[in-house]
Amino acid sequence: xxxxxxxxxxxxxxxxxxxxxxxxxxxxxxxxxxxxxxxxxxxxxxxxxxxxxxxxxxxxxxxxxxxxxxxxxxxxxxxxxxxxxxxxxxxxxxxxxxxxxxxxxxxxxxxxxxxxxxxxxxxxxxxxxxxxxxxxxxxxxxxxxxxxxxxxxxxxxxxxxxxxxxxxxxxxxxxxxxxxxxxxxxxxxxxxxxxxxxxxxxxxxxxxxxxxxxxxxxxxxxxxxxxxxxxxxxxxxxxxxxxxxxxxxxxxxxxxxxxxxxxxxxxxxxxxxxxxxxxxxxxxxxxxxxxxxxxxxxxxxxxxxxxxxxxxxxxxxxxxxxxxxxxxxxxxxxxxxxxxxxxxxxxxxxxxxxxxxxxxxxxxxxxxxxxxxxxxxxxxxxxxxxxxxxxxxxxxxxxxxxxxxxxxxxxxxxxxxxxxxxxxxxxxxxxxxxxxxxxxxxxxxxxxxxxxxxxxxxxxxxxxxxxxxxxxxxxxxxxxxxxxxxxxxxxxxxxxxxxxxxxxxxxxxxxxxxxxxxxxxxxxxxxxxxxxxxxxxxxxxxxxxxxxxxxxxxxxxxxxxxxxxxxxxxxxxxxxxxxxxxxxxxxxxxxxxxxxxxxxxxxxxxxxxxxxxxx
Length: 615
Description:
Residues 435-551 form the Guanylate cyclase domain. It comes from Gracilimonas halophila. With 615 residues, the chain is an alpha+beta fold. The chain is 30% helix and 34% strand. Strands 1, 2, 3, 4, 5, 6, 7, 8, 14, 15, 16, 17, 18 and 19 form a 14-stranded mixed sheet that branches. Strands 21, 22, 23, 24, 25, 26, 27 and 28 form an eight-stranded mixed sheet that branches. A hairpin with a 2-residue loop joins strand 6 and strand 7. The protein is globular and about 95 Å long. The N and C termini lie far apart (102 Å).
């Protein structure tokens, strides 16, 4: 190898964990570059001709300035990824990196390859020494931590040493921890949160998702959220609102207050406009309060596979190129798309699907054609179009364990602790595919007559508290109460069904609440509009109107659901698993205010309706 020419480094590491278990750590290129000692990067705009999907990046450290054009990462989850940088200024002329995970009987063989081309002869020897002795040692040290965490099923912060807090924060945090335990009554969750704040890396604390932690900790999501909200009230945590691009799923816009959020937004990566959606892309995220631990706003990589966990492969193809990516997919539905096309292809993954799949990309628009493929297909992708392109496969129903604005903004904990956190009075925000539940307390008039106003009011208020608790535990929120009725909002239909099932069971079987409580309910699912009404979030639209009419049409101890709710895949799955619990009857109903149409509805009961004996 001559000085000044390309240098190749090929390192192999044997790790005692499977590629799937290692992938979340190895695909986090932001963390890896930081561990390797890289300088924070930033977007630059020196060129007006940057190809779509490419990034123009740079860094400035110790008066050493570098800029480069970075190709889109190519990856195949959980096996390999690679990237290439073409430098315009700096010590290097070109850099290519690849990581490949090969399954073995003992875990994974990780092959790391680095190609370096110095910009001139002078830098060649220095780069060789730095790469061979410093970079390799740092990478090996990081992989030791990864292997320990992955093999023990732990998160990285659980095998890391405590980090430095803000001066004076240690004493303050001890006092606030006791206060948090006192108000939340959840010592175990509080202690886990404090450990996270003290030990996690900066990049893990930029956006903390309580529901993901609840899943890992084995705690109820409602309980973890309750602790996080109280922690924010005590200034242990701070929160803000991410508004994610619906195409790339990335949080491209963040607002500290809901009133600051803009409805119309733009994603630079996708080069497309998008709108804020209260139920689909607006999410509550947390980070440590800056008076406890300051998280620097630094990024070491902007385009790695770890930034898009819903994307199973991404490939760059020149004109006439072919790719044969290695796939291992879960059963479900996926979308094949490219940066050059607005449309997509639909890939249904089933165990009995087709094994040999050929995708030919032309200049014609992708028309939504559907095909059923196996979980490990022999896939080939050919670029027969007239331009270079980036293609990718995304999981359609990929769900991040995020807290969406629709559910949290109406939760009792949030509204009590942060009553001023709401939309601007002039804002009208779309809430797509939101689920509305109405419940009604039947024969309440008889209750008031029989028990008197004071006793009846107490029992009705107690009934509201029970419903409020159950709705919160099922990822919903009480929008408002109307007389003896409740209007609640949920992120998805199956949560509303689970909530009303529990409500019905309590008021049907528990003697502590009295036999006079007879609840009926109506559930509908669709689009509506979220607004600020009298300082609280409220919802308007046809979806709300239909749900309110469904509860009016329901009978005693009956759940009236629309066809849209009943046909939702998650609802169907839940009903199938509990087929012995539910008794379902199909019917046609005319709803008040919708005189020109009949609605297909399902009448669901938790007990068989009484038989009428006609003599």
